[in-house]
């Protein structure tokens, strides 16, 4: 696996073993369980869609391996407040340090600045990170099928649910879809960006749609940049979106969100 995802996952292993030395899993678990402040992530999306509006997960990310630095003026609390003011449904906050210039503090600050449910956006390969997510305040975790075995996916979903969080399972192709369908979560993210090559095509969501059973909530992820992209997805009954770059490049991210969905 000589690709970007493989590099990220190798780095994660080191990050996690260092984190474990700083703080034990048992200690983290105590903190995670003592928090009684979970915000319903999946529920927020369903409520929006029930009102006939799109569910919008607005992402807070400073940089990415494919784009470099996306946003120089980066204040997570300001961005979160702006998203909330202009109608975002949920937040997604990158906590990966090495490749996305994220941080745990970004998540804490963003969540404290609004009342929206928050997804910890990271590459989860160890239960420690799920427990850490809740200790930080996350309401949902991302599980990437390309990064995990079917056994790990089931085990990790269990741990997240046990802590009261929702799970967004991310797929990229048909084989991954079949694995994801074994999980309980209704939230199915179809990434238009291949995490191995970083190429993006919205056609990826459209191609996989017919194979998705009706009880799953499809969230189209990555590469949604213009109103036409939103319209194309809505025509195909895709009502939930995960969008980062298009908002992060704008002066006022919330305004960009409102404008992108002005026709909806
Ligand atoms: O910035 P974009 O193209 O709107 O994409 C957002 C989000 O989908 C993307 O950041 C993403 C999707 N899956 C991921 C997994 C890890 C890191 C990042 C991601």
From TrEMBL:
Residues 5-260 form the Indole-3-glycerol phosphate synthase domain. The keyword Disulfide bond does not apply. Pathway: Amino-acid biosynthesis; L-tryptophan biosynthesis; L-tryptophan from chorismate: step 4/5. Keywords: Amino-acid biosynthesis, Aromatic amino acid biosynthesis, Decarboxylase, Lyase, Tryptophan biosynthesis. GO terms for biological process: L-tryptophan biosynthetic process. Its EC number is 4.1.1.48. The keyword Amino-acid biosynthesis applies. One of its GO terms (molecular function) is indole-3-glycerol-phosphate synthase activity. InterPro entries: Aldolase_TIM, Indole-3-glycerol_P_synth, Indole-3-glycerol_P_synth_dom, Indole-3-GlycerolPSynthase_CS, RibuloseP-bd_barrel. Belongs to the TrpC family. PANTHER family: INDOLE-3-GLYCEROL-PHOSPHATE SYNTHASE (PTHR22854:SF2), TRYPTOPHAN BIOSYNTHESIS PROTEIN (PTHR22854). NCBIfam families: PRK00278.1-6, PRK00278.2-4. This is Indole-3-glycerol phosphate synthase. The lineage of its organism: Bacteria, Pseudomonadati, Pseudomonadota, Betaproteobacteria, Burkholderiales. The gene is trpC.
